[in-house]
């Protein structure tokens, strides 16, 4: 499963993202999304993270920066109940607390 989990950083822009950003774990699990090639999966993980920001922080401003890094290891612990479910209904997002 590790190959389908991305750590996504979301910020207003690249500069501000160094100081203040939100980080999410995005797990791609549905057929539609796991079938994509690497680049598209990364892009999808970013899109899902943006949707999560809009849902979790309705007053958040524009998002100009996203960066996705694929996790190479499995999660050490079960992250528990997700904070956001993607519109596909299967892919899951957890907020990463600093
Ligand atoms: Zn999905």
Written overview of the protein:
Helix content is 30%, strand content 27%. With 98 residues, the chain is α+β, with helices and mostly antiparallel strands. It has one domain (2-96). It has a 5-stranded antiparallel β-sheet. A hairpin with a 6-residue loop joins β4 (84-85) and β5. It is globular. Bound molecules: zinc ion. Zinc ion is lined by residues 28, 30, 32-33, 86, 88, 90-91.
Q: Based on Cα principal axes, name the global outline.
A: globular
Question: Considering DSSP H and I runs of 4 or more, what fraction of the residues is helical?
Answer: 25-40%
For the sheet with most strands, the description reads:
5 strands, antiparallel
Gap from first CA to last CA? 24 Å
Mean pLDDT across all amino acids:
91
Bound molecules: zinc ion
In DSSP terms, counting alpha (H) and pi (I) runs of 4 or more, how many helices? 3
Radius of gyration: 13 Å
